[in-house]
């Protein structure tokens, strides 16, 4: 049975309060389980000491992180290189993750209704995020794991969505890495929200990069550039 407009209106009460904000202080049960599974393996440090909180959210240095449930990639917990050797997991040298407020939320609207809160199809936002670094002779390699929350808007419905997530690494004015990942996920039928885990492997930066290195994560909300006609 379709939900009445009144019930849907109750579900989306507070949309206007949500606009322009992101709740990165609430840790979902799924993300707590993720962090718990990381710590339970007992690799990468004393489990009694809390990982340090990083700027702009609740990012943490974690020694391990499980693979994306929707991915066929193995867990990064082994920290094993292609040659079969174990790479050292580093903490102190692992750059911090930053997120700009304007990159923390992604929305789609009904056609021609951009910026109308009542015409939002769905909204995605970041929750907590974490990272792991391994080191070899030439590169510091990072894996980033982030919690994402999806919710249908007043004009939306359950279904598949694709989220454009950009991760960039900058050292002062130099861009060391920048890539947009088109992350496919969905809001299940019969649900109005979902929480998923995003994982990005193989973020490389040269060993000896300066102390100003920072890693930026967020939704790529820039409009696609149109090709110039010849």
* Euclidean distance between termini CA atoms: 53 Å
- Indicate how many domains the architecture comprises: 1
The helix count comes to: 3
Please compute the radius of gyration using only Cα atoms: 19 Å
| Uncertain stretches | 1-82
Helix percentage: 10-25%
Mean pLDDT: 70
Strand content bin: 35-45%
Principal-axis shape equals elongated
Helix and strand element order: HHHEEEEEEEEEE
Helix and strand composition category: mainly beta
Largest sheet composition: 6 strands, mixed
- What's the total number of strands? 10
Region (Disordered): 46-80
Biased composition (Polar residues): 50-59
Protein name: Lipoprotein
Biased composition (Low complexity): 65-75
Give a structural overview.
The chain is mainly beta and 230 residues long. It has one domain (5-219). Helix content is 10%, strand content 39%. The protein is built from three helices and ten strands, in the order H-H-H-E-E-E-E-E-E-E-E-E-E. Strand 5 and strand 6 (139-152) form a beta hairpin. It is elongated. It starts with a helix and ends in an 11-residue tail after the last strand. Residues 1-82 have low confidence and may be disordered. Residues 46-80 are annotated as: Disordered. Residues 65-75 have a biased composition (Low complexity). This is Lipoprotein. Residues 50-59 have a biased composition (Polar residues).
Short description:
With 230 residues, this protein is mainly beta. It contains three helices and ten strands; from the N terminus they run H-H-H-E-E-E-E-E-E-E-E-E-E. The chain has one domain.
């Amino acid at each position: 049975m379709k939900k009445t407009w009144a019930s849907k209106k109750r579900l989306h009460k507070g949309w206007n309060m949500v606009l322009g904000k992101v709740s990165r202080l609430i840790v979902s049960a799924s993300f707590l389980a993720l962090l718990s599974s990381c710590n339970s393996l007992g690799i990468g440090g004393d489990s009694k000491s809390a990982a340090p909180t990083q700027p702009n959210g609740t990012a943490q240095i974690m020694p391990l992180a499980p693979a994306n449930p929707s991915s066929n990639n193995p867990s990064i917990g082994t920290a094993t290189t292609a040659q079969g050797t174990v790479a050292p997991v580093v903490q102190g040298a692992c750059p911090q993750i930053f997120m700009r407020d304007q990159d923390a939320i992604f929305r789609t609207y009904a056609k021609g209704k951009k910026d109308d809160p009542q015409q939002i199809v769905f909204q995605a936002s970041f929750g907590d995020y974490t990272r792991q670094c391994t080191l070899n002779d030439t590169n510091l390699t990072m894996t980033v794991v982030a919690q994402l929350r999806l919710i249908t808007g007043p004009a939306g419905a359950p279904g598949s969505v694709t989220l454009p997530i950009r991760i960039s690494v900058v050292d002062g004015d130099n861009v060391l890495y920048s890539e947009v990942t088109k992350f496919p996920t969905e809001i299940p039928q019969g649900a109005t929200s979902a929480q998923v885990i995003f994982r990005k492997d193989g973020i490389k930066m040269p060993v000896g990069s300066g102390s100003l290195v920072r890693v930026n994560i967020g939704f790529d909300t820039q409009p696609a550039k149109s090709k110039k006609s010849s």
